[in-house]
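Form 7-S
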Amino acid sequence: MGETWFPPQERAEGERRSRGDPYSELQSALQPRRRLQPLERLARLIVHLEGVFGDEIADLRLHLDGCPHACAQHWVGDLGFQGTTGKDADGRRLSAYDIFVRGSLGPDPAIARPVFRRVASDGLEAAVEGLIRGWLDGRADDESFTDYQRRLSDEELGAHARLEPARSRRDAEVAA
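Output:
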């Protein structure tokens, strides 16, 4: 992911993000008083991860979108993030992201699935750090992040992220 800090527009080729047009009517991941644009949010996440893991994660591809139009193609990154909204304990609206896992391009392409829904923006670093730490501690020799994610269940990934995986409609119907 490069140096500890440099302007987001100069970031690595493997990284995608939405333009973050401040006037977009589609922008979903917004702070009530101050809009944290996708570019800023991704830069903040990367700086945190580089500070914790350094060069060990240089090949990870993070794709972050601020809205459902998916300009940053969050469904094909090692980790994808789609802006949405959530609610805090008092029911107030807050900026949040759905976290997509198991996506990739290349010889074994796959469309990522949203495994964690409506993760508060302020909790994104902790969740992603947990996923990456789980991979670094539990991977087989030279196992890629995506291959590691594909090997684990949603519940195992949830234990790393310290989040409850979202249930699909099919899972909910089977449980009912």
